[in-house]
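User: I'm curious whether this sequence folds into something compact or stays loose and floppy. Could you predict its structure so I can see for myself?
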Amino acid sequence: MFVSDVIVPAVTPIGADGRPALAAGVRYFGALAAAGIEKIMLLGTNGEGPLHQTGEISPFLREAVAHWRALVPGGVVIVNVSAAGTRESLARAELAAEAGCDAVALSPPCYFHHDERDVVEHYRASRAASLPVIAYNIPRYAAPFSPGAIAAVGDMEHVAAVKDSSGDADVLRRWLDVRRRRPDFGVNQGAEGAMLAALAAGADGVTPGIANLAPLVALDLVAAYRAGDGERAALAQKRIDRLLPVHRIRPGVPVVKAALALRGLCSATVAPPLRTLDDTELTALGGFLAPFEPDLIGAADE
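Assistant: Here's the prediction. I'll summarize afterward.
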């Protein structure tokens, strides 16, 4: 299943010309594979997807998908194709299909205030995509899923799963209700602080942004839960929780990329208008991460 176990919402390495470039993060992808990660999502929130122009993503997608297949034979690659409008999303989905990915993630349309019918029609139109569609519920950035929209989208055969990043237990429960009607429908949770709770509620997997920095901990949490080791799973969730305040230094992608750059794995460059960390923030980041060293993704000398 595309959304089972751990999916890492990968960052997008950026080259000197400001465009997505695999070469700027080859060691990063290698470190994820070495940690045991098999599934990644490209161009999501951590991948700065909406900040990269559609006309610039195709070469990166082709190279990144091929590289991941070489690193992880049988590995899964999902590409987020969310955009402000349906036509742009479908154009991105076509590029993702040409690159050879396994599925596309699609959020409701953003920017405008869209009602339930708009959201439903957006997903109905996604039937034109040549790949399975994963509904991407991220109400912080896109139109929210109403109960009616969840029911309607959940009944669309081409929509194979959901990645629910709402952090709302009631919303997650509604998606799990879809799975009860459709046993083949996958449910993945993206709220890092509630991963264990989501698995206990019945989710198939998790997509934690913090797994960019601590992939082994995310894998350990899921493995422990699957093995029925509740104590170890709870400890892994606590280890994740203690790492999450890294975003107080600077929220989001800039601090994640800066941490990867400190470890010699990926360029710290972010897509404008995002900004790289300044020297004061970098000092704070190094001090914050030091106690977590055993949990962190492989360093440059490994």
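Summary: The first helix runs from residue 26 to 35. The beta strands are 5-9, 39-42, 76-80, 103-106, 133-137, 159-164, 186-189, 205-206.
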